[in-house]
Amino acid sequence: MTARAKHRRLAVCRVLAVCCAAAAALAGCASGSSGPDVLTAPIHVVRTPAGTIAYRELGSGPALLLIAGADVSIDGWPASFVDTLAAHHTVVVFDNAGIGRTTAVSVPASVSVPAMTSQTSALISALGLRRPAVLGWSMGGMIAQDLAITHPAQVSRLILAATAVGTGKAVPLPPFTIVAGLSPAGVVAHLFPKNQAAAASAYLNDGLQYPDPYGVSPATFRNQYLAAEGWMAGQDAAGRLGGIRVPTLVAGGTSDEFMATANVRQLAGSVPGAKLVLFPDAGHAFLFQDAAGFLRDVESFLG
Q1: Nearest to 147 by CA among 65, 223, 44, 222
Q2: Of the candidates 51, 75, 121, 198, which lies 20 to 30 Å from 115 by C-alpha distance?
Q3: CATH fourth-level superfamily of 3-302
Q4: pLDDT digit string (tens) for 176-232?
């Protein structure tokens, strides 16, 4: 690994693997809780027809699968966020293709939302999750949509956070050249509104709780970003939202600088019967910025 890659790996880890303190304060999770603890949950690797997939599993109750966005590893979910959900659910978090010990898509040009969906479907089958509820954030929300369309028997409910339709009608993402050139602090500046400095600071400072945390390589991030752009441009035929027939919650922040709020509204209006929740003065990381409110909505939706 080159020095530049190592630097980016550590930087990404500091930026994207964190938010426990802010989420704990907002969600009311005590750091000394005796409940589920993702920080001590080991990373397992399962072999599937789509390759090996690294995952953590914790908690008890109905299965809930979390699908991360671009440039986020398995350590990118704030610990208290996962632990709160695991108090009532069997929560599974995993690395998308090409991250950690999860097999990469064999041909870089083939990295796409459908390719990552196939791998996600293989994980559900391999772990015997049957019909989990699925929460997808950003690019993960695109994978979640595609999963519900192409593998409807594997999804019971959908929670789509800060994401967009795959019909070709979405407001595009910022150009990748802009995003790739941001420093860690610059990325955080775009994940949270400028007046949410406390949440942004917590997001930056608390991620190293995970043992041996790691991030996403620049090449994998680029491929993921291109895959998300392709989905939003309507390049994937499975972007037919009318095919989603499960209860769906769509959520987003009104000050999201990565994913236009218009995309979130459009998504909610395109999925039959979807419920829309918008968080005021919240950015792309709204689900961590207002963890207490979002987790209440999630628990109410999941019943």
Answers
A1: 65
A2: 75
A3: Alpha/Beta hydrolase fold, catalytic domain (3.40.50.1820)
A4: 998 888 876 677 778 999 899 888 877 766 666 898 888 899 899 999 999 999 999
